[in-house]
């Protein structure tokens, strides 16, 4: 453990379950790195992701964004390519980007949007984009003919959430340079969305644990019974 990490641990009572506001105030104090650390939530859910009816996946626009510049690649054709570029897409096209990814191992983008008529083409990249969490999906709003709306939401701070095989969701909610009130607002927006996405097949306690941390800092436990207070 580094010196900063050890110092940060002293600010946390490992036996205490903090309120969201308390946890955010502490995590900002534990973010001691010289760069603008990302503040991330890790949420353990009471679901079994092996079952299709217990998958939790979606997207939400954080009211204060993520603090990160997001590069968007759009797969489209015809007039939709121009629409995407005018809306702020960093890259827009079709076959040429499939080849660039396949042949050059090119990944200078963070989010992929595709129009429905391009999914046959994008599907060829499934084995490459899928494991990286970059495959467009209707549930997250990244498969749509309304590319202008999709791009603007992504640029404004739209984040995707998806439960992994260990039943945990990891999502960034901002940077250490954010004011605590902005992080708290983003926190509530994300948790509201995840609670609303609770599968009907999920029984018992849904929010098992909620932990907040900075890129280089320790995790801080949040009282899951108070996350929506």
Automatic annotation (TrEMBL):
Transmembrane domains' residue ranges: none
PROSITE patterns xrefs: RIBOSOMAL_L1
Keywords: Repressor, Ribonucleoprotein, Ribosomal protein, RNA-binding, rRNA-binding, Translation regulation, tRNA-binding
Xref: SUPFAM superfamilies: Ribosomal protein L1
BP GO annotations: regulation of translation; translation
Family: Belongs to the universal ribosomal protein uL1 family.
HAMAP family per record: Ribosomal_uL1_B (MF_01318_B)
Stated name of the protein: Large ribosomal subunit protein uL1
Organism: Clostridium tyrobutyricum DIVETGP
């Amino acid at each position: 453990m580094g010196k900063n990490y050890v110092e940060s641990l002293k600010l946390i009572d490992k036996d205490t379950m903090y309120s969201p506001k308390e946890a955010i105030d502490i995590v900002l104090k534990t973010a001691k790195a010289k760069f603008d650390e990302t503040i991330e939530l890790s949420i353990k859910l009471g679901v079994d992701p092996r079952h299709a009816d217990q998958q939790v996946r979606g997207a939400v626009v954080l009211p204060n964004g993520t603090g990160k510049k997001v590069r968007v690649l759009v797969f489209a054709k015809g007039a939709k390519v121009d629409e995407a570029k005018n809306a702020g897409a960093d890259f827009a096209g079709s076959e040429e980007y499939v080849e660039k990814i396949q042949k050059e191992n090119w990944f200078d983008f963070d989010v992929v949007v595709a129009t429905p008529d391009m999914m046959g083409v994008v599907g060829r990249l499934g084995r490459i984009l899928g494991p990286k969490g970059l495959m467009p999906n209707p549930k997250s709003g990244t498969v749509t003919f309304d590319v202008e709306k999709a791009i603007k939401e992504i640029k404004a701070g739209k984040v995707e959430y998806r439960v992994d095989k260990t039943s945990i969701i990891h999502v960034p909610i901002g940077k250490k340079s954010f004011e605590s009130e902005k992080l708290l607002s983003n926190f509530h927006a994300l948790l509201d969305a995840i609670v609303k996405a609770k599968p009907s097949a999920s029984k018992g306690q849904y929010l098992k644990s909620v932990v907040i941390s900075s890129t280089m800092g320790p995790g801080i436990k949040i009282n899951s019974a108070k996350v929506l207070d």
